[in-house]
Design a protein that fits this description.
alpha/beta, MgtE N-terminal fold, 23 helices, homodimer, Tetracycline Repressor, domain 2
């Protein structure tokens, strides 16, 4: 029998997605018709086809409210878990507190904490008050930790057994509670002392498989297991999972009592989330998150803050031009080369910024290694600067038939490229030492600097040999 | 008993890394002394402390060659697996073919394929010829697949049993080969037909735990399991693991024969790698990879290609200024506002590019939804454009005491921002439809466009009302 390409279980590139062009149209229709059963079916289908996020982003606020009002809380919870976090937060904010609380009761512990962390304190408090008290207590506990620490990343659903229990006890428990455990990542079980929650060992399921029933679990378990503390940072966790090929690591408090488990996948998700924020921030989206389904006001404000900050940086740079107006007036061709040289400086510097940020995040570079970076960048800057300077200087010479103009433009371009590349390489290290976010600050500060130095180099040099430039 | 912070097994933020400031110095010393035993120890310590990458990056080529010459192949293989892929490739290139082949024999299958894919065909072929024939055959097979497909991502180390076997057979095999299987991710075992490798089911280890020994595995296994084809793309795999909380998925060929397993972690790693490349490319590093330990020539060339391409784009833009030299000559203040307006247009447009690329990668936006993006961006562009235009127009008016100059500058800034934001939003969609990489191309094309439109708006508008501008 050959694999049939249209078998619904075959998941391949050949799956036709063109017919899902507007997956929200049926959903919109059912919202208008207010048919809960049809809606549950549509939502399930959209979750399965991976189109739920796009569909939700095409509904307006009223449609979203109506949809959540018609769905049972558990389906809404599943929906929240299937869309991006930013979308889930948007949806929660549309709901009355009691409805939001009902959905929160159905979410898994780390999702609860993640979403609560994104809401305003007042909003989060109101929802927690309306939640099932037990769920609320757990959620409150988790949200009290830094979301980028073990405490904030850990799950509280894990298997725990006590010293003195046997392999049979564990297997009996697994069998008896098989249904409850289906949502658990049952890779490891943790062993604590008989009389306290102090962690003493880790049981791998495969070792249980290979042991006879009456064996005490203390004989099978791994003793002195690796663990992390509640305040261990995301970086340290990433380091840990790089070094150890584990699916998860137990989290203990200061008394070494077991509090939760951080899974590798949660660390990876957090890192990906951070990389996403980083990638948005270097492109000028304050906060690192924007979806076009967000309200116009949110979208314009977040972008505007960064633009207005940039306008002031730009004004500083162009004030150099204002200072040299007379030089430009004498050699108008300089107005053509000013944006060119400053732009190219910015481009060259941003490459060096990228390499420094990357090397720091890979652990190949520490913020105090300024000299090493400067040495490595000055050669690259000089090489590329000379090549670019010759190109542009030559072009200027030919265009205006004036070798002196070529000299001014070429030399300025070369020096500005060296400055830009060295400054770009160093900028992320310096910002990091001042505990600033290189992703957000490095680019705008650098381009302001290279605009200023570029303008200054061209105009002061031109001013110095003005009599050779004026025909 | 309290957890002791200085217990070496406690892995927390409090770990002091300052004393590892120059972890390569001991290593360098041992390389100079040519002491293999000390080297093995140093390398192990550096791998454990996560400092191996930084240490290797501070050695020169001769030191790297000597180091690898002194290390046994299995330690070298461990080293290769502990540094970034770019570093591993660098190291391999330094070695004679026979030494490289000896190390490749010790690497796990997907590492072999990943590294071979990064070498030149000639280099890879030479290493394959010198490798153990069995290892080489497997590596050849894996490298024949697209590295961003199931075939390229899968591992070939997995557990396979046949219809007709019992739970006892599986447990006996697990017990007998426990040592061989320690490197396997033993979460699932796969069941194929008795007479062919056609996949018929998946066994979860926890289900084996809950079953009696004589039970046929066909009774315990999950029938009609999910699977993917050899050519399933990375995107589809990411989608798959988003939807299904599995640790891995079996890969089958067209006859539905089991070929390997793609693990969720491998898909996540590939996605992270791609995000890294993306983040480097939007900052102008061609190829998405540069380490400062690479040769100067490699580093300058990769950066230069992009800079030279940009210089030509920039020349197109500034040719607009060249065309309007007389207008600038009449109103020299315009030279100050030209870079300001074009830079701000670029900044505003890049924000919109970032949002489009992100929404496409989250599956919230398809490349054909141009109208939706245009509608969403025109309002943001108009709002922010009016605010920025008023700020800059007002500044120009006050500075030169000329309301007409304020009008020219303010209106140009407003219109240019709208153009930049709408064009920025659409650019990634259009590039994607032409199968171009939005990460690399969108930024430079957009800034060229906004430079041109910015210059053109200011200068043509100023030219039109020149008599009001000249005092």
């Amino acid at each position: 029998m050959n694999a049939e390409r249209n078998d619904p279980r075959v998941f391949s590139d050949h799956m036709d997605t063109e017919d899902l062009n507007k997956p929200w149209e049926d959903l919109k229709q059912s919202i208008d018709d207010k048919k809960p059963k049809a809606l549950i079916l549509h939502v399930d289908t959209l979750i399965d086809s991976g189109e739920i996020g796009r569909a939700i982003s095409r509904l307006d606020s009223d449609e979203k409210k109506t949809l959540l009002g018609l769905l049972p809380a558990d389906v809404s919870a599943k929906l929240m878990e299937s869309v991006t976090e930013a979308q889930a937060v948007e949806l929660i904010k549309l709901l009355p507190t009691s409805d939001a609380a009902a959905i929160f009761n159905e979410l898994v512990s780390d999702e609860q904490a993640d979403l609560l962390a994104e809401l305003s304190d007042k909003n989060a408090e109101a929802i927690l008050d309306a939640m099932d008290p037990e769920e609320a207590a757990q959620a409150r506990q988790l949200t009290s930790y830094d979301p980028e620490s073990s405490g904030g990343l850990m799950i509280t659903e894990f298997l725990q057994y006590r010293e003195g229990q046997s392999v049979r006890d564990v297997l009996d428990d697994l069998r008896a509670n098989a249904n409850d455990y289906t949502d658990y990542d049952v890779q490891y079980a943790y062993v604590v002392k008989a009389e306290s929650d102090e962690l003493v060992g880790v049981l791998r399921l495969r070792d249980l498989l290979l042991s006879r029933d009456p064996t005490p679990i203390t004989e099978v378990m791994i003793r002195e297991p690796h663990f992390v503390l509640l305040d261990t940072s995301l970086e340290k966790l990433a380091d840990f999972f790089d070094r150890h090929h584990f699916f998860g690591v137990p989290v203990v408090d200061d008394q070494r009592c077991l509090k939760g488990v951080v899974r590798k996948i949660d660390v990876e998700e957090a890192l990906t989330g951070r990389a996403d924020v980083f990638s948005m921030e270097i492109q000028g989206i304050i906060g690192g998150e924007e979806l076009r389904s967000m309200p116009l006001r949110t979208r314009t404000t977040r972008r505007l803050i960064w633009l207005v900050a940039n306008i002031f940086l730009n004004l500083i740079a162009v004030s150099v031009i204002a200072f040299y107006q007379e030089t430009i007036s004498a050699v108008i061709a300089l107005a053509v080369f000013l944006p060119l040289i400053s732009n190219m400086g910015g481009n060259a510097g941003i490459q060096a910024i990228a390499v420094s940020i990357r090397e720091m995040s890979l652990g190949l570079l520490k913020p105090n290694e300024l000299l090493w970076v400067a040495t490595k960048e000055v050669t690259v800057g000089a090489t590329n600067g000379l090549i670019l300077g010759s190109l542009i200087g030559g072009a200027a010479w030919i265009w205006k038939q004036n070798p002196w103009l070529g000299l001014v433009v070429g030399v300025s371009m070369t020096i500005n490229t060296v400055i830009a590349v060295v400054a770009g390489g160093l900028m992320p290290l310096i910002l990091k030492r001042f505990k600033l976010d290189p992703a957000l600050a490095a680019g705008p500060i650098l381009t302001t600097l290279t605009d200023m130095t570029g303008f200054l180099l061209v105009l002061s040099f031109a001013n110095a040999i003005l009599r050779y430039l004026v025909p």
